[in-house]
Amino acid sequence: MTQIKEHSFDKVDRAKAPVCYCKPHNLRGLYPKAEAVGFTGHSYKAAQTHYPDPETGQRVPLFDPRRQTWAEHFQWSQDGTLVIGCTPRGRATVLALKLNNEHLTRAGRRWVAVGWHPPAS
Fold first, then answer.
1. Beta bridge partner(s), residue 75
2. Domain-wise residue ranges, the chain
3. SS (H, E, C) 13-67
4. Rounded to the nearest 5 degrees, what angle is found at the Cα of 73, between the Cα atoms of 88 and 8?
5. Could you report the average pLDDT of every consecutive run of 10 residues in the chain (121 residues)?
6. Are 35 and 22 a contacting pair, CB within 8 Å?
């Protein structure tokens, strides 16, 4: 069985931010419930592959980190605590995965304070 890669930042910030990369079962993935695997982002994503762009209202595909470049669709806020979607796909992904939720922004503020964030590139 394929192992799931999971990283948690709980020890750093007590923010519930496990990161797990898996494909939803309905897209021929191994896991019937992606939310059970527990990725903050994927737990919100579940089997979603599309979400409405808040500017146009049109459903667009979510960002695919395996096939797309982060900087093409997102940027960090000036203070480094928020993810800003720069394209329809980026904006939809920020909302669908709740990338600016309270836990992650609180962690982001602490990471910025100690110089761990945002990434240089």
1. 84
2. 6-113
3. HCCCCCEECCCEHHHCCCECCHHHHCCCCHHHHCCCCEEECCCCCCEEECCCCCC
4. 115
5. 41 45 50 41 70 97 94 94 96 95 92 89 66
6. no
Sequence-distant (≥ 6) Cβ neighbours of residue 15 within 8 angstroms:
9, 103, 104, 106, 107
Q: Are 34 and 22 in contact (CB under 8 A)?
A: yes
Burial class of 120 by CB neighbour count within 10 A (0 to 12, 13 to 18, 19+):
exposed
| 105: Cβ contacts below 8 Å, ≥ 6 apart | 81, 82
Is residue 19 within 8 A of residue 41, CB to CB? The reply is yes
How far apart CA 71 and CA 25 sit, in angstroms, is 28
Q: Comparing C-alpha atoms, which of 102, 75, 107, 79 is closest to residue 90?
A: 75
Task: State how far the Cα of 29 lies from the Cα of 101, in Å rounded to an integer.
Answer: 27
Does the global pTM surpass 0.85? no
Q: Are 22 and 32 in contact (CB under 8 A)?
A: no
